[in-house]
Amino acid sequence: MDTTITALGNIVALFSAFPDQFDLVSRNPALVPAAFNEALRFWAPIHAWGRSVTEDVEIDGTLVPAGSQVAILFGAGNRDPRHYENPDAFLVERNPVDHLSFGYGPHGCAGQGLARLEAHAVIAALANHAQRLVAAEPVRVPSNITRSIDELEILKVVPA
Questions:
Q1: What is the pLDDT of residue 147?
Q2: Distance between CA atoms of residues 35 and 41, nearest Å
Q3: Is the dihedral of CA 50, 150, 108, 74 positive or negative?
Q4: Residue 8 domain flag
Q5: What is the DSSP string of 2-55?
Q6: Within-domain flag for 150
Q7: CATH code at position 100
């Protein structure tokens, strides 16, 4: 639930910061799922997640021994320039279905289906009912784990 709330706040902040991208979604509602995927890639709701290594594994020539603790850095992976062209740009037409924000495989988020339904509904409603969102700079919750917004003052909504 917290990560879905975080993602929804991030979407509103991103649409305010990138009105050209909000315009694309407003003009083409088929971009709603892509916009959500890009928001998750651009501002992963969770920065890092820990795992215990159960057996020795070699990654790029470095041995990670069994029993080690590792951190999965979702935000860094989602901005990897070897994988994403222009990774520091928020582009709703990118549709990065392979972002890491929901995890992967057996470690995938069990609630991602519901999160997608909720986020798609919010994005579609915003795109349908607002022409422009103007927000103050987000006040972030200080955290090493999440990219949550504590306060996001909406200064103006221009109706569609």
A1: 86
A2: 10
A3: negative
A4: yes
A5: HHHHHHHHHHHHHHHH-HHHHHHHHH-GGGHHHHHHHHHHHT-SBSEEEEE--S
A6: yes
A7: 1.10.630.10
**Tokens (6 digits) for 25:** 């979604």
User: Is residue 66 assigned to a domain?
Assistant: no
* Cβ neighbourhood burial of 100 (10 Å; 0-12, 13-18, 19+): buried
Separation of alpha carbons 42 and 88, rounded Å: 7
Do 52 and 78 form a contact (C-beta atoms < 8 A)? no
Count of domains forming the chain: 1
What is the C-alpha to C-alpha distance for residues 67 and 60, in angstroms, rounded to an integer?
Answer: 19
**Average pLDDT, rounded, for the chain:** 93
The mean per-residue pLDDT over the stretch 114-123 comes to 96
